[in-house]
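Contributing new complexes? Match this layout with pyridoxal-5'-phosphate.
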Amino acid sequence: MRLSLSGTKMAGLSGLRSIMEDVAASTAGASAGAWLNLSVGNPAPIPEVRDMWRAALTESMAEDFDEAGCRYGPSRGSHALVEAIADYFHRTYGWQLGPENIAVGPGSQMVCFAAAALFAGPGAHGERRIVLPMAPDYTGYQGLCLHDDGIAAIAPLIHREEGHRFRYALDIEALRRRADIGMMLISSPGNPTGRALGRADLDALTALATEREVPLFVDHAYGAPFPRIAQVHTEPVLHDSVVNCFSASKAGLPGERIGFAIGHPTYMAPLAAFMSNSVLHAPQLAQYALARVLTDGRLDATTRDVITPYYRAKKRYVDHLLHELMPADVDWRMHSGEGGMFCWLWVDHPWFEDTALYGRLKERHVFVVPGRHFFVDPPRTPGLAGHATRCFRLSLSADEKVITEGVHRLADVLREMRDAA
Ligand SMILES: Cc1ncc(COP(=O)(O)O)c(C=O)c1O
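Output block (do not edit by hand):
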């Protein structure tokens, strides 16, 4: 077999995927229950959320199946969903949208993959890259590019805060120095940190996108208007240079693969065409189910009454737990913000290393995710080499008992690493 250059890249496993394989292999089989998995990116299994999706899919199965399941549909998205999206965003934000402003895909990851192929890579103006304005960001972005070295990330400014807190800030000047931007992509609120763009940062990014004539993709997978898993500082804006991406996944339906983008027709037309040329379209039954819950208010009500409060309470619980259990003489810090699916932790000591922590915790049947995977090439990013490897991500999706035992073991391992230094 001979793989092409992009084939070689895409056939390989990214750092995080290889860890996910490790987690899957280790937790398979009879001893599965013995593992404490604090690495997962799955949304928490909240019964009310499952019930909402089960009901919506059941209704679609009963009423929409002939139309949805037994024929191909439009690449831009089913008429029912495209119309529901336009109505929903008109009601929610007053946006005036037509089908030309919308492109549905099988998950927002695929929408972003299509965007990366369309707007980054070699072209008439040289090599253009996907630029992530603020690392760390969703590790899945690193697999979006078919070319080696096709993605770059800007190191954040790091601010220590009171107590065991810190936060990242956008370094807009460093971003402006890049001449090779083909598109910008940022999750807000972000994975893994939960940091959300404020209005001034969003305006600065939008102005830069306009100046460079490139799209700014803002990925709202955790944010507004649904599922509001993490704190939102500014609602999505409609602007010719901004493409807003939304997903049903973190609102509880990751397995059915539905995401969509809203933006100017200049960007939406090639995205819809890409769907046509690649996957044809997103699964239709799930599109009909999403249309139902957008239209009748169920998704908004579930977001407000169940999803947001659930993750807020969970984050508060883990925050208390960390303060209670982490060794007092260790400089550990958690990224600021309320809610979110994760805790992003920084242990600022020379003796700490993320992969060493991963290995030691794995020996104790606990999985966390090493921090380096959320940065692009940290050793070559000025200011990040010593930071990325001192961070790790804890998932809040597991139940409280599992998280509590996991944090106990984490604290023991930190003591051990400190004493060994
Ligand atoms: C920021 C972010 N965007 C997108 C995705 C994937 O979304 P989808 O399931 O819609 O492809 C994830 C999944 O973890 C994510 O964290």
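Reviewers usually confirm one structural detail per submission. For this one: Residues 41, 107-109, 138, 140, 187, 191, 219, 221, 247, 249, 254, 259 surround pyridoxal-5'-phosphate (CB under 6 Å).
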